[in-house]
Amino acid sequence: MTFYINQTLTVAEQNNLYGQALQVGDDVDYMGIPYYQNQMNLFLRNFCERFNHIEIGPEDDYTVDPPILSPDRGYDLNGDPMNAFFISRDKIDLTVEHQMREGTINATMYSGKDSSDDTKKYESYYLMTAKNVGIATATDKDSSKFATTTRENYNSGVDAADLVVKLQALQSKTKLFRGGGGNAFLQCIYSDVTVDTQECKIFQTNFTNIEKTIGNQRTSISGVDEDEEALDLMKFQNAYNLASKCISTFAEIYDRLILNTGV
């Protein structure tokens, strides 16, 4: 996998990086927001790739003479070959649309210029994310450019819908994401969120209980108990009151002996 750095490095920085291993991000086991973003992108790429593959169909072979025209190529109502329906928009210039033709296997990463195709016509599905996915402008503005049948069945009339039947299979009959169809995506994500939420609650409760236990243990060893301290204060108060009464009694006794008896 090749990475391109937009900012030019100095000679010293290049020498420090030469021959060194590269690690992007930290390796953590926590399934946070990036995990769900990755799951969403994975489903989106698989779904859009299958959808476009049905719409476009096998490419025509113009390398031979006469060219071999694929009978399964998708054709719109105008009799023109169908291009990609789901596309990826350039992350730098959103007006540039990438026709999604390459598969996700052995595909190149986007780096300003695709290494396998300078025209940006046949781009990798790794370009596509939930943020930049879109519909081709031509198809979005004119529904007649959406293919519902193939070249072979084009003469069957405007109601020919053999491609629509194949697209409907993406809903549940075609495995797209974790062994399920398109309708299983939200179920899988919801299950992940539910399980992760329950685990978080359990871990939080356990750690809270452990924290309280450790705190009580530390208090019993090095700290004081508030109830015990209050009881001791009451004892000291009572002892002080008794001592004060004793002193008052002895003072009264001395007063009587000295003043009344003349000792």
Automatic annotation (TrEMBL):
One of its GO terms (cellular component) is bacterial-type flagellum hook. Pfam families: Flg_bbr_C (PF06429). Residues 220-257 form the Flagellar basal-body/hook protein C-terminal domain. InterPro entries: Flg_bb/hook_C_dom, FlgK. GO terms for molecular function: structural molecule activity. It comes from the Bacteria. One of its GO terms (biological process) is bacterial-type flagellum assembly. Belongs to the flagella basal body rod proteins family. This is Flagellar basal-body/hook protein C-terminal domain-containing protein.
